[in-house]
Give the backbone structure.
Amino acid sequence: MNQTTTRGVPLREDRWQPQDELLNSVIDKLIDDAHHGAKDSGGGSGPLLVAGGMMLAVIGVTIGAGTGNPMLAFGIVVALAIAGFAYTALNAESVHVNKLSVLDPIGGPGNLPAGYLVYPRAWRAGMREYLMPITDRQFRIAVKLCREHPGSVSDVLRLVKRAEKHAYNTHTGHEITEHDVFRIAHRWTAEHARNSPTMVMQVAAR
C-alpha cells in the first residue's frame, strides 16, 4: 500500500544530495515564478473591495433613510462588511499552486536527474505528487539507486518496476523481498551506468 500522504523528503544514509548549482537555481526560479503567478491570478480582489465598499455605502444610506435609524444602518453595514471580507479571505486562501505543473518548462519532475529524488526543493516543485503512484518499496529502492543512476527520475523508477517484475517471474518458491528487488535493480543500474554516454566519453578520454 502506498503511504503517499505521509511520505516526506527522503534522506539517504550517506546524506548525499545533488550539487548541480545551475539546475538548482532553475528549480528555485520556477518555484518562485509559480507562486508569483498564483498570486497574480488571484490578485483581482482589489477592485472588488473598492466596488464592495461603494455598494455598502449606498446600502447604508438607503437603510438609514428608510428606517430613520442611523445606528441600525451602521450595524447592518458593518455586518455585511465583515461577511464580505471573510469571503474574500477564504477565496484568497484557496488560490494555490498546481505543483505538478511547476517544472513543466523543463519536462516535469520525472525529467530531473535521478538524484533529485532526494532534493528538498524538488519536493516543493511537484516531486511528492509525481511519486504518488509509486509504492513505498519501489520508492525506497529508487532512493538507494538515485545517486549512481545516470538517467532521470522516471528512468530509475521504470528500472525498479522492471526489476520487481523480473524478481517475481524468476524467484519462485519464496516471497519476494525488498533485497531481492534491490539486488536486481542495482546490477542493472551498474550496467546502465557503464554503458551510459557520459561514462563512455570518460573512458575514451583516458
Notes: The radius of gyration is 27 Å. The first helix runs from residue 21 to 41.
